[in-house]
Specification:
Helix 4 packs antiparallel against helix 7 and helix 20 (810-820) runs parallel beside helix 22 (841-853). With 963 residues, this protein is an alpha+beta fold. An eight-stranded mixed beta barrel has the order 23-24-26-27-28-29-30-31, surrounded by four helices. A six-stranded antiparallel β-sheet has the order 6-5-4-9-8-7, sandwiched between helices. The two termini are 107 Å apart.
């Protein structure tokens, strides 16, 4: 492709003199160094052809001018267009020349753009290379051996290789303690640089440029004066103002831990955004290098500290080993001393052995033992070994070293100068050979100084220290004890002789005492027999008690196991209405009656039979040697007949009767208590059948007892397994069968017997104390399901028995349960019976009033079957009366009138006058429902509408039930 202009056939090219400027302009165009030079050369070329031609830049997106123009080229870097306006009367030749000029200009602009891009790429590459070398150098500084100051200087040099950094400092910030430190600070103008080791609070640099970087975590660049004006807060002058200032934060994650700052005091040196980016990038690597360096120094410090600690521990351990060795030698010495006290045949041998033991602990070539005489007026030396003083004779107490230790009762460690000083002070008056070192310790027993143990040295090679004093003092205690044992041996021998005399005398005294003791033993045996009798017999009647009866029963049961054909019987006797007798005529008369009853029962039996009083008005009889069960029944009837005869007690004639339970042995019985228990059960059966009779324990009673026991166990396991569930029976409006609420009824999902109503187990639950726990399980389930059942419009009734009202916090527990499950109080109604209102009426009233005050409804259940006192209706906050089903069942047809109709009408009229709601229970027929409507009863429940069912059945059921 050529860019040479074509010759127009209509025009003639310029002559030689006219074409020289064009050639020069083209040459300069091809050598133009920038786009502006290209524009100037294009203008010169166009002016050679058309003096009035114009060449100018046109920005991209600007609308074209009204005059005709030629686009010569586009600058790729700025996207500006170079436009030529040729003027009027443009010829074809000029158009061809201008087109050729445009191709030249466009080519040169593209060349310049490519060259500029190439130079920029080379500059970026060089900068990246310098930055890479700087980062390598920073990383090397983190592991260098020189100190922190040298590292900081090296970092300064590295930053200086990237930008102007004659004035450079590093600040470190601890956000937890809010303190700053300037570990490195170089400034050519500032004459008061901060101390690199000084730690100051950040408030000391508040509102400075450095403070703003640390607080905001953002870099700052510009003249310091201008930056201070643009930042919030008062202006703070710290250091001289700089012509240009650049600071970037150092961060650890999102936390600012310091900053790098460079500044210029030269007007011709400014920082660029590129410098800011570069310093920001470098700052993170500097932060990493500083942290690595600090971690390295911390590790070295910890290693140094640990080494010192180990060195100290090693030193202490060596000392402990030495002490342990000395302790072992001391322990061996003490064992040896203790052994000598028991094995030495003479006191002289003991002294010599002690000398050898002490010689094994310290220097004891010169050694002696001094003791006070019995009258404590003289000092004797029973043992002495000395290289200068061969013999130490006894002497009167004076002022020698030995007497000094005796008087003070403390050890003395003295060298020759100390001994001379004590002599000059007239504290001592020593005689004999003078020792260079002297050590003496007192021998103490019975808290008195009775002697002295002393060692001494006549040569400077052997000296004594405070440790030797402590050691010898410690050993002296054991030597003193050994000496005391040695010296007490003789006194013990004398004591033995005296003891033998005293034993003889004591033996004679003991013979006399033994005679008295035998008499006391005989009396004690009589007392024991009496106590044994009282232990096994009743104090009131003199009859055997339960303990003796069980012993005889166990013997009879063992005999029965060996001879099953020989029967016996256990009769359990309980007087009928004895409490009435006791309460009416008094306990004294009652005790007299029990005494006579015991005598009459005893008269009905054989001699070998046992009659026992178990307590209160209960007696038991063991009848042995019977041939058949009928014989036991005859004996029981004979006893009942005897007890029918009136008892004459003083001026009164008392009548009583008895109920008797009979138990006969079988192979199943293993313990006597089981027979007594079953006889007791049979006695209660006799009472249930009308009293004044006897009943025999049979298989039916056993099955009932076992069933009762199994039921009790099942009840307790059911509580832990949460087998009790509420069934709900709807309460409907009698006019349209619309459901207004539900009554929660207790059911037991027995794993073997299926679904059980409360009548099958509630009595046993009340006897065993489980009923309240069962009720609370039901309450919790009802409250959890209440909102879904009522849909926040109706109510659910729960039956609360009288036992619950014995707890004073019943109301608060119910309210807390409602609050826990966020159930409105109006959705729950509490049903109580008239019997519950009779027990502790004040507490019941308080609980019901508190529940009613919080919005819980109160209903009186089974109204009309109890006392039906009208005082309940105004004393208690009752809003609903529930008519018992016994009245509803007897309601007649429409054309008849019965007593039950009058009762129901009276209850309805009473409730209407008191503005109470009435709910009829047990509605089973249409006739009953119509009768209730005629009376005016608006609400009811019963099998006519629905059977009780789980909550799952009613959650999606319609709100209206067809009768």
């Amino acid at each position: 492709m050529t860019i040479a202009p074509s010759q127009s056939p209509a025009l003639q090219a310029p002559g030689p003199g006219e074409s020289a400027p064009l050639h020069d302009a083209v040459e300069r165009l091809l050598r133009a160094a920038d786009p502006e030079a290209v524009r100037d050369e294009c203008l010169a070329f166009a002016r050679c052809l058309r003096p009035d031609a114009r060449v100018e830049w046109q920005e991209a997106g600007m609308p074209p001018s009204e005059q005709p123009a030629i686009e010569l080229g586009v600058d790729p870097r700025t996207e500006r267009s170079l436009v030529l306006t040729p003027g009027a009367d443009e010829s074809a030749f000029l158009a061809d020349m201008f087109d050729w000029l445009g191709r030249l200009a466009g080519a040169r602009l593209r060349q310049l753009a490519e060259t500029a891009n190439l130079y920029e790429a080379i500059s970026r590459l060089a900068l990246a290379e310098r930055l890479q070398r700087a980062l390598y150098a920073i990383a090397e500084q983190a592991g260098a051996e020189h100190n922190m100051r040298d590292m900081m200087t090296a970092l300064h040099g590295i930053v200086g290789s990237l930008m102007y950094a004659e004035n450079f400092y590093i600040v470190l910030y601890d956000a937890q303690s809010r303190t700053v430190r300037f570990p490195y600070f170089v400034d050519s103008v500032d004459t008061d640089p901060p101390d690199p080791e000084s730690i100051r609070p950040i408030e000391a640099i508040e509102n400075t440029l450095t403070w703003h970087i640390l607080q905001s975590g953002k870099s700052l660049m510009g003249a310091s004066a201008e930056l201070e004006k643009s930042l919030p807060g008062p202006r703070v002058d710290i250091g001289p103002p700089s012509d240009d200032w650049l600071g970037v934060p150092m961060k650890r994650g999102d936390d600012v831990v310091g900053a790098l700052v460079v500044q210029s005091y030269r007007a011709d040196t400014r920082y660029t955004p590129n410098d800011r980016e570069l310093l920001t990038y470098v700052a993170q690597h500097v932060q990493t290098a500083l942290e690595r360096r600090q971690a390295h120094e911390e590790l070295e410090r910890r290693v140094t500290t640990r080494t010192a600690a180990l060195r100290e521990a090693n030193r202490v351990l060596r000392q402990q080993v030495l002490q342990r060795q000395r302790g072992e030698r001391l322990q061996a010495a003490l064992f040896r001393i203790a052994e000598l006290a028991n094995t030495s045949d003479s006191i002289e041998n003991f002294y010599a052995a002690v000398h050898r033991v002490i010689g094994g602990l310290l220097y004891a070539r010169n050694f002696y033992i001094a003791l006070l005489s019995e009258d404590q007026s003289k000092l004797t030396f029973p043992y002495s070994v000395d290289e200068l003083d061969g013999v130490r004779e006894p002497r009167e107490l004076g002022r020698g070293l030995t007497e000094y230790v005796l008087r003070n009762g403390k050890a003395l460690l003295a060298d020759r100068s100390e001994i001379d000083r004590l002599n000059r002070d007239q504290v001592l008056s020593t005689t004999g050979a003078r020792s260079l070192h002297w050590l003496g310790v007192p021998l103490i027993w019975n808290e008195k100084s009775m002697g002295v143990l002393a060692v001494q040295s006549y040569s400077p090679e052997h000296t004594y220290s405070a440790r030797d004093q402590e050691l010898l003092t410690f050993v002296s205690y054991h030597i003193a004890n050994a000496l005391q044992r040695k010296y007490t041996t003789e006194s013990l021998k004398q004591a033995y002789a005296s003891l033998e005399r005293r034993v003889t005398e004591r033996t004679r005294a003991l013979a006399l005492a033994n005679r008295d003791l035998r008499e006391q033993i005989a009396e004690r045996e009589r007392v024991e027999r009496r106590l044994k009798y009282e232990t096994l017999h009743d104090s009131l009647t003199g009859l055997p008690n339960r303990t003796l009866l069980l012993q005889r029963l166990e013997q009879a049961l063992n005999h029965y196991r060996e001879n099953p054909g020989e029967l016996f019987a256990v009769l359990f006797i309980d007087l009928d209405r004895f409490k009435v007798i006791n309460d009416s005529v008094g306990h004294l008369v009652g005790d007299d009656l029990l005494f006579q009853v015991g005598g009459r029962v005893r008269a009905c039996l054989k001699t070998r039979d046992v009659v026992a009083r178990l307590g209160g008005d209960e007696f038991a009889v063991l009848v042995e040697g019977i041939t058949d069960p009928q014989a036991a029944t005859h004996i029981a009837e004979r006893i009942i007949a005897q007890l029918q005869t009136p008892f004459r007690l003083g001026a009164k004639e008392i009548f009583t009767s008895a109920s008797i339970g009979i138990a006969l042995p079988t192979p199943e019985y293993t313990r006597p208590e089981e027979l007594l228990r079953d006889a007791d059960s049979a006695m209660y059966r006799a009472k249930d059948e009308g009293r004044h009779r006897a009943a025999v324990f049979d298989d039916r009673l056993r099955r009932e007892a076992l069933s009762l026991l199994e039921l009790e166990g099942d009840l307790r396991r059911a509580l832990t397994r949460h087998e009790f569930v509420p069934f709900y029976q709807p309460i409907v409006h009698l006019e349209d069968s619309r459901v207004v609420g539900y009554e929660a009824l207790l059911r037991w999902r027995h794993p073997e017997r299926g679904l059980l109503p409360p009548g099958d187990f509630l009595a046993v639950a009340e006897d065993t104390g489980c009923s309240e726990a069962i009720d609370w399980q039901i309450f919790q389930q009802v409250v959890r399901q209440a909102r879904a059942l009522t849909r926040d419009e109706g109510f659910v009734s729960i039956n609360v028995s009288g036992s619950h009202f014995r707890s004073p916090d019943l109301d608060q527990r119910l309210l807390d349960l409602l609050a826990q499950h966020k159930v409105p109080a109006k959705c729950i109604r509490v049903e109580v019976t008239e019997r519950a209102l009779l027990e502790n009426p004040a507490q019941v009233k308080r609980i019901l009033e508190n529940l009613r005050a919080h919005g819980v409804g109160i209903a009186l259940d089974d109204f009309g079957t109890g006392y039906s006192s009208l005082s309940y209706l105004h004393q208690y906050p009752i809003e609903t009366l529930k008519i018992d089903r016994s009245f509803v069942i007897d309601l007649p047809a429409e054309d008849n009138e019965a007593h039950s109709t009058a009762v129901v009408r009276a209850i309805q009229a009473l409730a209407d006058s008191l503005r109470m709601q009435v709910i009829a229970e047990g509605i089973e027929t249409e006739t009953q429902m119509r009768a209730l409507r005629r009376i005016g009863c608006r609400f009811g429940q019963g099998f006519l509408f629905a059977q009780p069912a789980p909550a799952s059945k009613w959650l999606g059921a319609p709100l209206s039930l067809d009768a």
